[in-house]
Amino acid sequence: MDDKNLMQNILLLEKGVCDLYMHGSIESSTQNVHQAFKTALNDSLNIQDTIYTKMSAKGWYQTEQAEQTKIDNLKQKFSTQSAQ
Q1: What is the Cβ-side half-sphere exposure of residue 10, based on CA atoms within 13 angstroms?
Q2: What's the whole-number mean pLDDT along residues 55-76?
Q3: What average pLDDT does the segment 41-47 reach?
């Protein structure tokens, strides 16, 4: 397994951890538990961002710029739906 695959796996795992912490926060029954999950989620999101930044710097995680017309079409679609 090369470095790129290892980082992809770590990023995928970290995204899964974020998902679990988010659901834990949503479903928590007390303020203390909610705060613990919220703090853990924030920490995990920071880790995820660090991993993404390192992968992006190496060219391992490239994103595309969305075309402005596609953005405008989606804005129009959702503004129309929310008005109904």
Answers
A1: 19
A2: 90
A3: 98
What are the counts of helices (DSSP H) followed by strands (DSSP E) for the chain?
3, 0
Q: What is the DSSP letter of 65?
A: P
Whole-number Å distance between alpha carbons of 76 and 31: 39
pLDDT of residue 83: 65
Local structure of residue 58 (DSSP, 8 states): T
Distance CA 46, CA 58 (A): 19
CA dist list (Å): 75 to 59, 66, 78: 30, 13, 5
Q: What share of the chain is helix, strand, coil (3-state, %, to 5)?
A: 80, 0, 20
pTM of the model: 0.74
